[in-house]
Write a structure and sequence with these properties.
By secondary structure, the chain is mainly α. It has a domain at about 70-225: MetI-like fold, CATH 1.10.3720.10. Helices cover about 80% and strands about 0% of the residues. It has helices at about 1-30, 45-55, 55-90, 90-105, 110-125, 130-155, 160-165, 170-180, 185-200, 205-210, 215-220, 230-265. It starts with a helix and ends with a helix.
Length: about 270
């Protein structure tokens, strides 16, 4: 009976893995297809990668996606961290109110947030474009940073900052010399989540961007009505970049821990 349960569990796990990763392998395979067909593989070719780099609109979408994600991540990480630190020193009532407000963008469907931002920009007569797209990404990334930093602040000893002030630190020195080093893991994870959410976003980008400004998601959506194998090439490069980042982020801590162990032994 136990063997049957183990076999069923392994089969179920393999089925789930196949469901998640088969589409990715399918995209990667047909990015090297010689023909435009998305159903039959006729031969190996790199022409769609070449075409991707020669397509100005696609390269612009990559540029805007990366630029907006980097700026939005930097700004939202700074704002979200400062707000979370200030909130940790506030009264209980203010904490509950701000926490509930902070959770609204994450609990609401993206379409609600997108329409709300679109109506806000139109009411204020703000022309849509790069600025509105960037501002929208900063707004919806801040709650994720706060959500990552707040648990680290709860684990922090409340007397550390006061001890730093008693020892002669200014409030700013206590912030970046004492508090931030203690919560850097939460800040880094919040920044990674913010970058991922910004780079991956479609719904909010679709409703807040303007003519001539497309990120990858809106560009791909605009090309779905016709067969464009260059999108497969773009998706393959994104998967490759994410894989490399994940490998580096997981291997480096292991190498550091090994180095520390060797130093301790020696």
């Amino acid at each position: 009976m136990k063997k049957n349960n183990k076999l069923f569990s392994k089969f179920y796990l393999a089925l789930i893995m196949l469901f998640f990763y088969l589409p990715i392998f399918y995209v990667i395979l047909f990015s090297f297809n010689e023909s435009r067909s998305l159903t039959s593989f006729s031969g190996f070719s790199l022409q769609w990668y070449e075409k991707m780099f020669k397509t100005r609109a696609m390269m612009e979408s990559i540029y805007y996606s990366t630029l907006i994600a980097i700026i939005a991540t930097a700004v939202s990480t700074v704002i979200g961290t400062i707000v979370a630190i200030g909130l940790s020193k506030s009264s209980r009532v203010i904490k509950q109110i701000v926490t509930q407000v902070n959770n609204l963008p994450m609990l609401n469907p993206d379409i609600v947030t997108a329409i709300g931002l679109m109506l806000l920009f139109s009411t204020l007569n703000v022309p849509t474009g790069f600025g509105t797209l960037l501002l929208a990404h900063i707004i919806f990334c801040i709650p994720y940073v706060m959500l990552s930093v707040t648990p680290k602040l709860r684990q922090l000893d409340e007397n550390i900052a006061e001890a730093a002030l008693d020892l002669g630190c200014t409030p700013f020195e206590a912030l970046y010399k004492v508090i931030i080093p203690q919560i850097k893991e939460g800040i880094i994870s919040g920044a990674l989540v913010a970058f991922t959410m910004s780079f991956d976003d479609f719904v909010i980008s679709y409703f807040t961007t303007g003519p001539g400004i497309n990120n990858i998601s809106t560009y791909v959506y605009a090309t779905t009505k016709r067969i464009n194998p260059s999108v497969n090439a773009l998706s393959t490069l994104i998967v490759l970049a994410i894989t490399i980042i994940l490998l580096v982020s997981n291997v480096l801590p292991l190498l550091r821990s090994r180095r520390k162990r060797n130093e301790e032994i020696n």
